[in-house]
Amino acid sequence: MGNNSNVLGGKRGSLIRLIIIGGLIIGTLHLLLEYLIVFDFLYKIPFISTLQYIASGALGSAVYKGGLASALLGLVFHYLIAFVIAAVFILGANKIPLLRRYAISASLLFGVAAFFVMNFIVMPLSAAPKVQFTSFSLIEAIIDHALTIGLPLGILIWRNAHVVHAADPLKLPSMP
After folding, report:
1. Is residue 50 situated within a structural domain?
2. Closest to 19 in 3D by CA, of 84, 67, 63
3. Is 122 among the domain residues?
């Protein structure tokens, strides 16, 4: 293997596999913990409305008249976004040894960064209605992104870093 090889999985297929696994994990965790538990139970926002809100980023407010079909489109968009977020972190960790060495702390920061990018750059540029955060909802959302998006990706990288290229100057901690 040359220095340009993919160090996390050894092969491009392994990286794609990690991205798919990572996207499925973070997409499902975020869906269950944030959308179903926090939004539905805590904020009393129906689950279907949350999924429609995701679709509204592309289709605007008309999506709320679409019923289950627009909610399913929101679910598809949710997982597409999860795969992109997973790909950014996994491909970044593949190229940046520091992200592999400090996978957990780097991933927690990445989760927070994902929140800020999505809510303060991507969403304002989309057709979705604007969201107002209270102090509580902002803190909750930041913690949620760190724990349901960042942390699972960090654990995935940490658990799969045993294939790191021998030329990598950073030594990873051994797994328990």
Report:
1. yes
2. 84
3. yes
121/140 Cα distance (integer angstroms): 19
Residue 159 CB partners (closer than 8 Å, separation 6+):
175
Please tell me the predicted confidence (pLDDT) of residue 164.
Answer: 36
Average pLDDT over all residues of the chain: 87
Interval 72-89 mean pLDDT: 97
Indicate the SS3 state at residue 158. helix
| Sign of the CA dihedral with 121 first, then 116, 105, and 75 last | negative
Is residue 88, in this structure, part of any structural domain at all? yes
Q: What is the mean pLDDT of residues 113-127?
A: 97
Q: What would the DSSP string read from start to end of 39-75?
A: IIIIS---HHHHHHHHHHHHHGGGGGGSHHHHHHHHH
Instruction: Of 94, 44, 39, 49, give the one whose Cα is nearest residue 75.
Output: 49
pTM (two decimals):
0.84
Residues 52/64, Cβ–Cβ less than 8 Å = yes
Residue 159 lies in a domain: yes
Tell me which residue range forms the domain holding 115: 12-163
- Tally of domains within the chain: 1
